[in-house]
Amino acid sequence: MTDDAPEPPSGLRAMLPDLAPWRASRDFRRLWYAGLISNFGSFLTFVALPVQLKELTGSAAAVGAIGAVELIPLLVFGLYGGALADAWDKRKLIVWTEAGQGLLSVALLLNALLPHPAVWPLYVVAALSSALVSVQRPALDSLWPRIVAHDHLPAAASLNSFRWTVGGVAGPALAGVVVAYAGLGWAYGADLLTFAVSVVLVVRIAASPASHEAAKPSLKAIAEGARYAWGRKELLGTYAVDLAAMFLAMPLALLPFLADELDADWSLGLMYASVPLGALLVSLVSGWTTRIHRHGRMVVLSAALWGLAIAAAGIMSNVWLVLLFLTVAGGCDMVSGIFRGIMWNQTIPDELRGRLAGIELLSYSVGPTVGQVRAGGFASYWGVRTSVWSGGVLCAGAVGLLALCLPKLMTYDARTDQHAAQVRDQRAAAQV
């Protein structure tokens, strides 16, 4: 270290989030605010929609079926959305899909205001929302590395996680109160307002056109991205671990029924907020993540602990212990998400970033989507709590097995990985 080099932070300061991306990039700040606001509204609907389905049907399987109707759009538009993100202006994709989500909030609001709300619009909106999110997320995920310096990407991952968890804590907690005392319409109306504000913020960021090397959206382009991912076994490991964790141990569709079994209807909003709360607590002390280099090991460890915490939540009969273990699970999931994001953003070249972001979207979205179906089906046959704890146990076992089968994930080191070095050189050349 040279005499004029800045000293690394120490003590409490070393644990706090690194604000370097926030200070250095105006577009990062605008996109961060837009995401915070729209996520807050989305979490209102995230709670309101299954609650409304439960009120209209009284069926755990019907609530879990939300995942089934979301699956096909997710599979189709996730991969194609990644190709679009590489070939089109990323900002425009984000703006138009955000506006489309606002229109879907209008549909939910109008249906909720009917004297006898229908069930089918809830599934239609869930499917269309899944399609829009599947187009938007690859564009959004591939935009961050363009507006943030390469060395700031770990800090940006932590700040983005913090943004998501703030909405994830406040949104569900408020939704429980709003739905109980003001009604579903107010939750959907607030979601509509947040999308409108988000669009205003996103249109002000700089355009982000396709790179010259990017392929036009096509099946061939999608296949090219898939071949690249298949050749990177450490990336495959991150996808597989997250897919297993979310498919086997995502209990959110069952929380309305779990609250009923514990005779604690008042706790539903807190249950939905507990997982994001754990993530938020980790985000607040995420400074340490920038000093970790073996990211794959952290992905595996935190995913296994997520499963064990979910299993403990399913076993407990005291609602406060259930809330505690859901919070622990959320913290573990956040650690996994931070290190997955760092690996993706620091090692994937710009011309493939959208298509790989589409594959990433499938890895962290298909699991929860299909997991809702699994959880609802298990609960119908063996009970709600059995469905929760058995999924957690299966998750921990599956993650351990994947770690044995994919050794490159466990040996990944950002300091020596050739792909990380290539992307670093690519970014440096682009700035010359």
Overview of this protein structure:
The protein is mainly alpha-helical and 432 residues long. It has 18 helices and no strands. Helix 15 packs across helix 16. Residues 1-6 have low confidence and may be disordered. It has helices at residues 11-15, 20-24, 26-57, 60-87, 90-112, 120-147, 153-181, 184-202, 219-231, 233-249, 255-261, 268-284, 295-315, 319-347, 353-382, 384-405, 407-411, 418-431. The relative contact order is 0.16.
What does the secondary structure layout of this molecule look like, with pairings?
Elements: H1 11-15, H2 20-24, H3 26-57, H4 60-87, H5 90-112, H6 120-147, H7 153-181, H8 184-202, H9 219-231, H10 233-249, H11 255-261, H12 268-284, H13 295-315, H14 319-347, H15 353-382, H16 384-405, H17 407-411, H18 418-431
Helix pairs in contact: 3-4, 3-7, 3-8, 4-6, 4-15, 5-6, 5-8, 6-15, 7-8, 7-12, 7-14, 10-13, 10-15, 10-16, 12-14, 13-14, 13-16, 15-16
Counting copies of identical and different chains, the oligomeric state is: single chain
Radius of gyration: 21 Å
> Which class best fits the helix and strand makeup?
mainly alpha
Return the average pLDDT rounded to an integer: 85
- How big a fraction of the residues is strand? under 5%
Structure summary, number of beta strands: 0
Instruction: Write the H/E string, N to C.
Output: HHHHHHHHHHHHHHHHHH
Number of helices: 18
Q: Which blocks of ≥5 consecutive residues have pLDDT under 50? A: 1-6
End-to-end gap: 25 Å
Q: State the share of residues found in helices, binned by percent.
A: over 70%
Largest beta-sheet details: none
| Large-scale geometry | globular
